[in-house]
Specification:
globular, 4 helices, 13 strands, 13-stranded antiparallel beta sheet, alpha+beta
Length: about 260
């Protein structure tokens, strides 16, 4: 009788064991949802173009060009002022900030270099995370839904010690939300990003709408992607120090008063 009871207990436990998910199980489904690691690794360069909005009367076009390993060139124009950020994929980056009266490109500091080197990794920190020195932990099903969908929550600890959270649709395994912090003027601020409107580009899925802010009720930045090109031909000069922009033309001098 005891043996029969033990067998029944084991059988009852089987469904729970089969349903258990590991970090690698979830990551495998995440990679597959986007198109698979082979297709992700086959991308050697990207060109992303679209529009970005920071609120009323503060929006404009952007273009980001990325190339392995970790090279990036970004241009963003808002209110007739263009910001340029460039990283050579090694140890040098340059940026201007016309919104702070810095028209000429300047060398990036240590914090800026760390940030742009992460942005330049278009695979993202979860792909090949071990070789990048990152750690990933499966937290489990989240108590809250994202856009009405159940989600798996993964915790990422980067090789520099930063902690972020990634929330994936429990059905499609596409990324729905990112939680972390961003450093600005020496201070860290909470940031949430929401990923929507996934589309297929040459067999790989990308989110074409990304909204970010300090919370879901405080969205400050909205990105709408118009086009994603995979493996475009990108000149190496795009990732070198940008030239100093030409000064604006001097205003025409006023005509001398008529003395007649």
């Amino acid at each position: 009788m005891r043996m029969k009871t033990l067998c029944i207990a084991l059988l009852l436990a089987l469904p729970a064991a089969a349903a258990a998910q590991t970090t690698e199980d979830i990551l495998a489904k995440v990679y597959a949802a986007r198109g698979g690691l082979d297709k992700i690794h086959a991308i050697q360069a990207q060109r992303v173009s679209g529009h970005i909005s920071f609120g009323e009367d503060a929006d404009g076009p952007f273009i980001v060009e990325l190339k392995r390993p970790l090279k990036m060139h970004m241009e963003l124009t808002v209110q007739d002022r263009t910001m340029v950020r460039v990283y050579d994929g090694k140890s040098h980056g340059w940026a201007n900030n016309p919104f702070a009266d810095k028209r000429d490109p300047e060398a990036m500091n240590e914090d800026e270099l760390r940030s742009i080197s992460e942005e330049s990794d278009f695979d993202g920190p979860l792909v090949d995370y071990k070789s990048k020195g990152n750690e990933v932990e499966l937290i489990g099903k989240d108590k809250d839904k994202v856009d009405g969908k159940e989600v798996w929550r993964l915790k990422l600890t980067t090789n520099s010690g930063d902690v972020r959270y990634y929330l994936f649709d429990a059905q499609s395994f596409l990324l729905l939300k990112w939680e972390g912090t961003r450093k600005f003027n020496g201070q860290e601020y909470p940031v949430e990003s929401y990923f929507r409107d996934y589309r297929d580009v040459d067999g790989v899925k990308f989110a074409f709408k990304i909204d970010s802010g300090s919370s879901s009720s405080d969205i400050k930045q909205k990105i709408t992607i118009d086009k994603i090109e995979l493996n475009p031909s990108l000149e190496e000069s795009r990732f070198a120090e940008p030239p100093t922009p030409a000064p604006p033309p001097a205003p025409a001098s006023a005509a001398p008063p008529d003395s007649r």
